[in-house]
Amino acid sequence: MKKTNPIGVFDSGVGGLSVLKELLKVFPEENFKYIGDTLRMPYGVRSPEDVKNSTFECLSFLAKEGAKGAVIACNTATCYGLENAQEKLDIPVVGVVEPACSYASLVTKNNKVALIATEGTVKSKVYDETIKKFNKDIVLKGVGAPQLVLDVENGNLENDIVERTINGYLEQLGDFDYDTLILGCTHFPLARKAFERIFEKQNRDVKLVDPANRTAIALKEILEKDDLLNQEKNPKIDFFSTNDIEKFKATVKNVIDTENEETFKEVTL
């Protein structure tokens, strides 16, 4: 494995771009290959076995493209596909759930943490189990938000449409007095400003937890240990999508602000 080999990033769609943004800050001299499985999104409403298989298929694609390590930038795929991928692939693979739980356990003051995620992630109970490893006294309450995934995929990141959607899901938490909210789908940090506006209007101080930065640091520690960190002067990002590459490209251009060389290609897995 060469230091110049790229870092692979996988998500069910464009949500993983929120993780890629952090990866670009932590790894400014690395090459990247990103695949969004837009043909089969959203993952949150699919069966665990289906998600596991699709996750492995996408990660295998990145491995064949020469990735020296990979990030599952999707919470649902992390829940159902991380362990299988780590067992079967010869490259290090990291997910987003554990970094999110670790940080949430550090910042909550009243041990009441809310989770907004896909229905699949909420039903998996992976967040419930993982956060207890860091603080057994934390009470977690989750809500599935499938429409919010679709809003973000359609480019509604900061407008009234996405704000109404978010409000509807947060109301399902009722009188649960949470002081920390885990954005448990990598699509959701792309709508972070809408979340912040809602809590500002409610005059509430709620800590928003985005696992992206902690995930990037976790991967850096692995690559550093294996002496695989790169110092590329002209890093490149290759983007792949399994459907509608032009729509995918438009969202990328709206979210990722970089001087790195970029390529875009639609692929069939």
Short description:
Keywords: Cell shape, Cell wall biogenesis/degradation, Isomerase, Peptidoglycan synthesis. It comes from Peptoniphilus gorbachii. The protein is an alpha/beta fold and 269 residues long.
Give descriptors for this structure.
single chain; 269 residues; alpha/beta; Rossmann fold; 2 domains; 6-stranded parallel β-sheet; 4-stranded parallel β-sheet; 11 helices; 10 strands; globular; cell wall biogenesis/degradation; Glu_race; Asp/Glu_race
Task: Kindly describe this structure.
The chain is of the alpha/beta class. It folds into two domains: 7-95 and 212-266, Rossmann fold; 97-211, Rossmann fold. It is 45% helix and 18% strand. The chain has helices at residues 17-26, 48-64, 75-88, 97-107, 119-124, 126-134, 146-153, 160-171, 192-201, 212-225, 245-255; strands at 7-11, 32-36, 69-72, 93-94, 112-117, 139-144, 180-184, 207-209, 236-241, 261-266. Helix 1 links the parallel strand 1 (7-11) and strand 2 (32-36). Helix 1 crosses helix 10 (212-225), helix 7 (146-153) runs antiparallel to helix 8 (160-171) and helix 8 (160-171) crosses helix 9. The chain starts with 6 loop residues before the first strand and ends with a strand.
Assign the CATH architecture of the largest domain. Answer: 3-Layer(aba) Sandwich
CATH topology of the largest domain: Rossmann fold
Helices and strands, in N-to-C order? EHEHEHEHEHHEHHEHEHEHE
What is the CA–CA distance across the termini? 24 Å
Structural class: alpha/beta
Q: Which CATH class of the largest domain?
A: Alpha Beta
- List the uncertain runs: none
**Average pLDDT for all residues:** 94
Number of domains: 2
- Sheet bearing the most strands, described? 6 strands, parallel
- Write down the oligomeric state: single chain
Strand order of the largest sheet: 4-3-1-2-9-10
What's the overall geometry? globular
Strand content: 15-25%
Helix content: 40-55%
Number of strands: 10
Q: How large, in whole angstroms, is the Cα Rg?
A: 18 Å
Number of helices: 11
Family: Belongs to the aspartate/glutamate racemases family.
EC number: 5.1.1.3
Catalytic activity: L-glutamate = D-glutamate
Protein name: Glutamate racemase
